[in-house]
Design a protein that fits this description.
The protein is of the alpha+beta class. The chain has helices at 53-65, 129-145; strands at 5-6, 13-16, 25-29, 39-46, 70-78, 86-94, 100-110, 119-127, 147-148. Strand 6 (86-94) and strand 7 (100-110) form a beta hairpin.
């Protein structure tokens, strides 16, 4: 699947190879040695089903909860509109090693020409709690900058 996305990487973040993370884009922020490396990820999934964006956000929580020692949903709110529903959720994560992290997720709907072509983007920023507060404005700017490029040119 090719999805031409445009976005602006916030200052202080560096794009890295997503490897086998399942993400289509990963950026990291510098951290002190031994500290958790903050990251931004972008994932895309085709969602031809009729699941609501709230249900999709809940699925993301369920998926994450299977790999962590603890997960708490701190907040969830709708942030999109009727044409392109979106939801933002703030999560508190605890790894098996006891590290506490904050993850902000934004799930954005990209409507298709027909309902079966619907895509959902999952944008996430994960960092230690104090760092998450500091990096939040940059992540908000990143989310606001994300858009799907429209194809240009003549039909052939």
């Amino acid at each position: 699947m090719t999805l031409p996305l445009d976005f602006v990487i916030p200052d202080g973040w560096t794009a890295v190879d997503p490897g086998d993370s399942g993400a289509v884009f990963v950026a990291v922020h510098a951290a002190a040695p031994g500290e958790f490396v903050p990251n931004i990820t972008v994932s895309v999934q085709q969602r031809p089903d009729g699941a609501s964006i709230d249900a999709i956000a809940a699925e993301a929580v369920e998926r994450l909860s299977r790999t962590l020692a603890g997960l708490e949903v701190l907040s969830r709110r709708d942030v999109g509109d009727a044409a392109a529903p979106a939801v933002m959720q703030l999560l508190r994560l605890r790894t098996g090693e006891g590290t506490e992290l904050i993850q902000t997720q934004v799930h954005l709907t990209v409507p298709g020409a027909v309902p079966a072509d619907r895509l959902v983007l999952e944008l996430a920023c994960t960092a230690a709690p104090a760092t998450a507060r500091r990096l939040s404005p940059g992540f908000q700017r990143f989310v606001a900058s994300v858009h799907v490029r429209q194809h240009e040119g003549k039909a052939q």
